[in-house]
């Protein structure tokens, strides 16, 4: 029901706020010129939650335009991990149920995946824009035969204003995904830090070049 979706979305957003304020226990695993990635064991499933932080060379509005989870948005243009993104149901102005498909990855060891999530977009009191998501079931989205169904646990991104720097944005992201299927843990553990570094690298290019 719509109420349940809205509640799940609000709970995912609340988790994001908790992760943002909780500096404890993160262990660094990858650093590039664009992003620092760290991880800790997830409390949601038998995997890790990843924290990524970087500064992008564009205004928060521009970064938000590139990452916001909307139909016909820019994500499919620049994010190599998003093949297709569709809104299955608009629950409210700020909450929607979405299906994302991903191409095969990691030299095809990881086959195409599909994810069905409830997604919330909101502006925080300090002007930060937040997008938060978590996995849900939806009657219009039964599992598709050509995809492995994966599950996002509470995850999201904060577009944070930097005082006095209108053309730079801090992007703080949390990734928490069960890829499903039967992947060796070593593959999963090496895939995510590399994938997240790629996300920041591709987004950095996108905010410089894409017409928003």
UniProtKB/TrEMBL annotation:
<dbReference type="GO" id="GO:0070508">
    <property type="term" value="P:cholesterol import"/>
</dbReference>
<dbReference type="InterPro" id="IPR002913">
    <property type="entry name" value="START_lipid-bd_dom"/>
</dbReference>
<feature type="domain" description="START">
    <location>
        <begin position="1"/>
        <end position="212"/>
    </location>
</feature>
<dbReference type="GO" id="GO:0120020">
    <property type="term" value="F:cholesterol transfer activity"/>
</dbReference>
<comment type="function">
    <text>May be involved in the intracellular transport of sterols or other lipids. May bind cholesterol or other sterols.</text>
</comment>
<protein>
    <submittedName>
        <fullName>STAR5 protein</fullName>
    </submittedName>
</protein>
<keyword id="KW-0446">Lipid-binding</keyword>
<dbReference type="Pfam" id="PF01852">
    <property type="entry name" value="START"/>
</dbReference>
<dbReference type="InterPro" id="IPR023393">
    <property type="entry name" value="START-like_dom_sf"/>
</dbReference>
<keyword id="KW-0813">Transport</keyword>
<dbReference type="InterPro" id="IPR043556">
    <property type="entry name" value="StARD5/6"/>
</dbReference>
<keyword id="KW-0445">Lipid transport</keyword>
<dbReference type="GO" id="GO:0015485">
    <property type="term" value="F:cholesterol binding"/>
</dbReference>
């Amino acid at each position: 029901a719509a109420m349940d979706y809205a509640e799940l979305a609000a709970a995912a957003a609340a988790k994001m706020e908790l992760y943002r304020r909780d500096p404890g226990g993160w262990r660094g695993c990858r650093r590039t010129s664009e992003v620092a990635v760290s991880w800790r064991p997830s409390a949601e499933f038998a995997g890790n939650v990843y924290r990524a932080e970087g500064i992008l060379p564009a205004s928060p509005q521009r970064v938000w335009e590139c990452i916001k989870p909307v139909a016909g948005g820019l994500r499919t243009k620049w994010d190599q991990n998003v093949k297709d993104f569709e809104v299955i149901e608009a629950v409210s102005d700020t909450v929607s149920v979405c299906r994302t498909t991903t191409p095969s990855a990691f030299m095809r060891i990881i086959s195409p995946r599909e994810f069905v999530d409830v997604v919330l977009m909101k502006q925080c009191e300090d002007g930060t824009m937040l997008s938060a998501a978590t996995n849900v079931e939806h009657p219009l989205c039964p599992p598709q035969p050509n995809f492995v169904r994966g599950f996002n646990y509470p995850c999201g991104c904060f577009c944070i204003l930097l005082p006095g720097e209108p053309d730079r944005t801090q992007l703080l992201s949390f990734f928490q995904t069960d890829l499903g299927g039967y992947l060796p843990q070593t593959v999963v553990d090496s895939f995510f830090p590399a994938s997240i570094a790629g996300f920041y690298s591709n987004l950095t290019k996108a905010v410089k070049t894409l017409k928003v």
